Amino acid sequence: MLTIFKNEWKAFLRNKIFLFFSIFFVLLLIITTYFGILQNNQQIINQKSAQDHIRNQWDEMGPYNAHSAAHFGTYAFKPNSILSSLDEGVNAVTGIVLRLEGHKQNDAAFSESSQSLFVSQFGKFKISLLFQFIIPLFLIFFSYNIYTSEITSGRLKLLIVQGNSFKKIIFSKILTLLSLAGILLLFSVLFQLLFNFNQIGVEELLRLSIFFLAYILYYSIIISFTVLISLLLKNNTSALSLTLICWFLWTIFFPKTIGSFTEDLTPQSSRFLLQSNMDEDREKGIDGHNPEDVRIKELEAKVLREYNVDSLSQLPINFSGILLQADEDYGNKVWDKHYGLLYSNLLKQKKHYQISGLINPFASLQNLSMASSGTDLIHHLDFLSKAELYRRKFIKTLNNEYTYGNFKIDGGNLSSSDFFKSIDDFNYNGLSIHKIIVKYTLDILFLISWTAILLLLINAKTKKYLINES
Amino acid sequence: MHLITIFVNKKLVIQLKNIQKKFKNKIALKNLNLEIKSGEIYGLLGANGAGKSTTINLLLGFIKADNGSICMKDPINNLKIKRDKLGYIPENVNLYPYLSGIENLDYFSKIANLHFNKSQLEEILISCGLQEDSIHKLISGYSKGMRQKVGIAIAYAKKAKIYLLDEPASGLDPYSSNELSILLKKLKNQGSTILMASHDIFRVRETCDKIGILKGGELVKEMYSKDVTSKQLEELYLDFMKN
User: Quick check: A11 contacting B, CB < 8 Å?
Assistant: First the structure.
């Protein structure tokens, strides 16, 4: 097997066209990876600087009204992990900055495309494009004739007569192609390690391993599928045509149609409708800024009873703070109702898309690629949910301060700068490897099953080489 | 008299008994009985579709016979000859064009678990008739005859007991064709048994000890080449083809 493997590599290395394309491809890979890393690291630096700036604003805040500080708000930054450059996933369109403030929940903004004129006009050349589209095409063109070329040249008989089994010849060739794909992949992964050496920990290494294994499995599927088609059809043109059709279906047609199908299965209301429904529900709650609101009167009576006093002026606390927090609590319920449904629908759509891996291994690859890079929908929703939880805690801290801290009955309740300094920043650490594996078990299983089934079919098809025609 | 005795005593190396083979509805071989003795060069003549290649593929194990038996035995130890001890030279020996002659021989030997050093490989190629200066050149620059010599060298390197040649002279110039004959006779003298399928009546007559004519999957005539002239063989062959 090793001898055939070595000879196949010799064939690659002595093929000038292969060498030219390989060098071109590796250069492209290096350049794309390098610029991806640079761009990603720059984004990490920018984010860090923006985060520091916001922190400074809070640290340097003099005595200030806590409720005004809630309106001033803060920002949650979705951190760009060092692996984000491998696969940008949903980050390019979803936005990575979330403004957190009192009374309202905002959407994430500042997606890359919204910030770069070049990206918004021409798109971005992403390394995942190479991994998901170009390398598989490259592999198809190298594997569609590995069997037929040996047959038509008559070398297959010579190889078998030398004591090799048909199976060994085919599997050696598959292994050679897989090693070629693995080397290209390893190039990028090692490049990541090299350029981010100081920032790579166990977590990143594990994520890189998932990323690497997912692609290796997908490439095994592409190669095995192409070889199997070639074994079945025994004709170069038909084998290449059918493989390319399947590649097109997997990578372009199915993702689009299955995407639309999952949207039909769990339809989402439009952004406008979602917002107007939320506004409608929100109006039913307490309006903290409207003293004539009936529900305010009820809350007022409840608080007066609690403190056993007759008027708001006798209260040892700031009733406005209670009102604002009640308004906040109600707003949170409204958000939970509408966004809870939205997130649950998005996760259902995601699940349906994951199931499509049964017929489309590319879907499983996409999911695992984004998940290991931390740029998938599940990471994004997790970020949004954790940012919202932080916002609630943040606003409640400010409201509590406004209600109970430094309250002066004669007004002028300003909080000290020490209080603002004590407020923690939002830090998002992403999902743990364990959670990623749990959420993406289906995709892992599909990729493994596809590979195993195709290899078993090839194994069955290559048990014996027999000629069925004169 | 002495010569005849030796010939009679020679053991059977290849024996095909009542072989029948059908591809879909087409009969490829019909009750084929063929015996080839040790150290014999057997020439199988026949038109396209007569069953020559099918016979060779049957012996190589690439085709399963519908009926009949095939036996290939080593004349020395009487053991069954396995496929890896067969030398196969197809009509076009398409080796790896990106490898030189010596690299091709090295590769095919290695996959047969045979390891030779450079001088041994060179020696094998030279003994199979390849010019020394072409050994290290890429196969892509080789003529058909040169490639055939490398093909024979591959079989020779593994000490093939039986050589199966499918239309080896086809497309060769007379000089290369003659060189092939000389090489095959050399192998025969070293004890190899050779089955050669061909269209080339003259080359078969010149090279082979025994000749069989296949027609429609049937062995219609067998003779020793010493018993016929090329002209007689041609007439006989044409007669069979006409009828």
Answer: yes
